[in-house]
Sequence to fold (226 residues):
Amino acid sequence: QKEVEQNSGPLSVPEGAIASLNCTYSDRVSQSFFWYRQYSGKSPELIMSIYSNGDKEDGRFTAQLNKASQYVSLLIRDSQPSDSATYLCAVNTGFQKLVFGTGTRLLVSP
Amino acid sequence: EAQVTQNPRYLITVTGKKLTVTCSQNMNHEYMSWYRQDPGLGLRQIYYSMNVEVTDKGDVPEGYKVSRKEKRNFPLILESPSPNQTSLYFCASSFRPPTGVNEKLFFGSGTQLSVL
Fold:
C-alpha cells in the first residue's frame, strides 16, 4: 500500500462547479497535511495545510481532514479554468519527512 | 525577490558523465531538499539537509550525492549518471522542516535531465 494515494484523474468539472479532490494515507501517526498545486511545466506551490480534524477554509478552497478514516480532501468552489492543474497531496509520515501523492489532474472546462 | 534558483533548466548528457545541478536560495532557509518527479511515481525525495553540513538520505538516494557547505547552496551531484536517472528534478527549501505548522516548501523551477 502506498503511503499517500490519490486518484490520478483527470477529474473534469464545468466552470462554476465544486471540484472535490481526495487523498488517503496509511500512517496513522501523521499529523500534518498539505495540498500543493502544480501547473503544467511549473513547480509545485502550497495552497492549503491542515492539522486538525474538520474543515479549514481559505477563499474558494476548503481542506477537510478525517484522521479516523485517514482521509484528507480539497474542495474548490466556483471552479475556474485557471484552477486546471495537478493537485498534490502531501503528508508527514514521521519526523521531518513529507511524502507526496502522485497527484490528481483537474480540468475545468469553460 | 525570494526564490529558489536551479540550474540548468534542461540538461542532456550521456551515461557515466559526471554532472552537477546547482540550487541556491536567498531566503536564509535552514531546510533544503531535492526531489525527482516521474510520471506515475510523483515527487520522491532524494536527499535533504537540515542545515550547513547536515544532510540525510531521502527515499531514493542511490546514485546521487549532495553537499551543504553554505546555507544558501545545495548542489545535487550525479557521479555516474544512468538512463534510469532521466527525470524532472526539483530543489526546494523551507525555513524549518516542511512538516511543521505554517511551513511551506518553496520550489525551484525544475531541471529536466535526460541521460542517454
